[in-house]
Amino acid sequence: MHVIAPVADQQTAMRRYYRFHAAIYDATRWTFLFGRNLILRLLSNHPELTLAEVGCGTGRNLRRLAATRPDWLLLGIDVSPEMLRRAGKRLASFSRRLRLFEKPYGAGQFHLPEPTDLVLFSYALTMFNPGWEAAIEQARQDLKPGGRIAVVDFHDTPFAWFRRWMGYNHVRMEQHLLPVLEEHFETKTRIVRKAWGGLWRYFIFIGEKPLFHG
Ligand SMILES: C[S@@+](CC[C@H](N)C(=O)[O-])C[C@H]1O[C@@H](n2cnc3c(N)ncnc32)[C@H](O)[C@@H]1O
User: Fold this and answer.
1) Which one of 120, 134, 167, 178 is at 20 to 30 Å from 149 when CA atoms are compared?
2) Angle between helix 60-68 and helix 81-90 axes, rounded to 10 deg
3) pLDDT, tens digit, for every residue of 138-195?
4) Whole-prediction pTM
């Protein structure tokens, strides 16, 4: 069962969780946060643009994008000071074209400074509980018409014990994200893949904000 708590509790829970996990994040997460390099590759042939990563964590994705796309302006948003401190160190040499914001995202709490070409959520949205619908809606508002949302995240698992374990780690994996993304954006890329022989599935979604919203 998924328990709904106030949005402020979600932010407090994230700050608390990453106070400890920030220190071991980069050493451990590469073993299970699959699809991150693929989504970066799929995005990186775009022309010059502004990309915002929501829930940028320790800056792992932004670092790669900064190195491969010297013409892009990059923004990183995260609610955890410990994660952002690491991102700040890692990205120090790119500070001329990169800005980090310690802010919660969703429900109009913080809007990107200007309309953006690309909003990336990499293993962030499944931790917005509650708040994932609001964050998707806010990304839609923050994007330029024709701009793109890119999401890589957990999709589901056939094992109840694993779903429960991930729930203790604040991750919801109930196939809830893809249908809403597909409803609000025009699908450009949709990939669902097994991880660890089928222990869980993850997905990649890239969608375009319609030029006219009906
Ligand atoms: C699993 S980490 C992903 C980090 C990075 N995107 C990556 O792929 O390695 C999830 C991040 O989302 C952030 N986060 C969770 N809820 C948030 C919210 N409401 N607003 C902004 N950031 C949030 C967490 O603090 C954490 O750094």
Assistant:
1) 167
2) 30
3) 999 999 999 999 999 999 999 999 999 999 999 999 999 999 999 999 999 999 999 9
4) 0.95
Contact 13, 134 (CB under 8 A): no
- Ligand 1 shell residues, CB under 6 Å: 11, 14, 18, 29, 33, 36, 54-57, 60-61, 77-80, 83, 104-106, 122-124, 127-128, 131
Domains of the chain: 7-208 (3.40.50.150)
Most ligand 1 atoms within 8 A of CB, residue of 79, 112, 136 to mutate: 79
Query: Which token pair is 67?
Result: 């190195």
Averaged pLDDT score across all residues of the chain: 94
Do 104 and 11 contact (CB within 8 A), yes or no?
A: yes
pLDDT tens-digit map of 42-77: 998 888 899 999 999 999 999 999 999 999 999 999
Distance from residue 212's CA to the centre of ligand 1 (Å): 30
